[in-house]
Amino acid sequence: MTGDNEFRLVDGAISLVVDARIYRLSAVKKTAYRLAERCTAVISAIEGDSIRLDLRFRMATSEDAARETARLFFQELLDQELREQIGDETTPIRTLIMAHAFSKVDLIKRDE
């Protein structure tokens, strides 16, 4: 971030562009959900490598509070993207653990 004017509140919204080469759409959606109490994220377009969205705020939200939420959006977005990446990387081991756990369980009740 370069300074206080990086995020501008215009007509109750801050427009953002997210690089889709770095962040997945699913991470953007999860981030929007996590910040839903502070703002409404409206994903407007995916153009090439850019995901465009607006963070829309309640009328009583100050510009400083809106800017802080925009900053938090990118902080949370990094967290969500890393969770997605870790999930992808650990899927094989989680699948193996689950298969092993259920392989020892007889799911059919048998009369002896």
Uncertain segments are none
Helix content: 40-55%
Q: What's the CATH first level?
A: Alpha Beta
**Number of individual domains:** 1
Rg result:
20 Å
The name CATH uses for the topology is Alpha-Beta Plaits
Which shape, going by the Cα principal axes?
Answer: elongated
Q: Could you report the average pLDDT, rounded to the nearest whole number?
A: 90
CA distance, first residue to last residue: 69 Å
**Strand order, largest beta sheet:** 1-3-2
User: What's the CATH architecture name?
Assistant: 2-Layer Sandwich
Strand content: 15-25%
**Largest β-sheet summary:** 3 strands, antiparallel
Please specify the SSE layout and strand pairing.
Blueprint: E1 13-19, H1 25-34, E2 40-47, E3 50-56, H2 63-103
Antiparallel strand pairs: 1-3, 2-3
